[in-house]
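Bit of a strange request maybe. I'm writing a small parser for structure token strings and I need a real example to test against, not something I typed by hand. Could someone generate the tokens for this chain?
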Amino acid sequence: MSLAVAAGLGPRLDRERFQWSSLLMLSPALALLGVLFVFPVLYAGYLGFTNLALVGSRSRDYEFTGLDNITRMLGDYVFIKSSWLTIIFVVGSAIVGQTVLGMALAILLRNALVSVRVVIGSIVIVAWVLPEITVALVWYAFSQAGGTLSILLRQTDTNFLVTVPMLIVSLANLWRNVAFSMLVFSAGLRNLPTEVLEAAEVEGASAWRRYRLVVLPLLKPTIVTNLLLVTILNLSEFTLIYAMTQGGPGIETMTLPLYVYQEAFVFHQLGYGTAISLVLVLIGAVFSLLFVRASRSQV
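Reply from user aminoacidic:
Good idea to test on real output. This should exercise your parser:
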């Protein structure tokens, strides 16, 4: 039977096997899902189109304002810059940084001596399990004037959290979270068919050609999965950036999660803060759709 025929029969066979009575067994789980997930999401979406405030009269008597919050966002310079900073942070620190470095570390651990594997793996894992506030304090001290980074670069009067703040918080986030991608790719490398790699080696392919022409194509589903997960995990990053810079200097590290916090809990504009958070969800959905389409194209 061809793949096309099998693909056509699959949905029809699923429909024939499906029994509506089975939904009764799932009804408690569906009800719980609706109460704890669907309703809060829909209600939050509604609040994004209101003038709800954290304190004052509008905390009780708020009104539906239509597209007022959307119009306000389109003219809000801080929101526009925060959106770009969020995309730069996620793409640079997570999508590119964690994926490339995580793959490099996974390959290194696959081929290194046991002692090297234990030392490097332990260092990377320890960085991952440290509390975010601890990582923030370490990198804050590391990048200050007179800190380790300024001494290494022989610029002892330079505070790198002032001169290149977005780069520093991105590197701190990369340093902390690269272990996740390393573990994902290590698992993917262990599951590769050894006979394919041995055949490529017998054919005389160099190590670079084996990884480029054999390993990477076989790892494409793992790479797409890692990209999806690190994007979701890093898109809502708040604690690390807030502890290091609180969005400063100025608004140079004011990513959308920090801007949501500022509008909702500092300026008490819960409705506007919720609207901004919906944009954050939309950005995550766009990235997710791109990765899902990429994964389907590999089937």
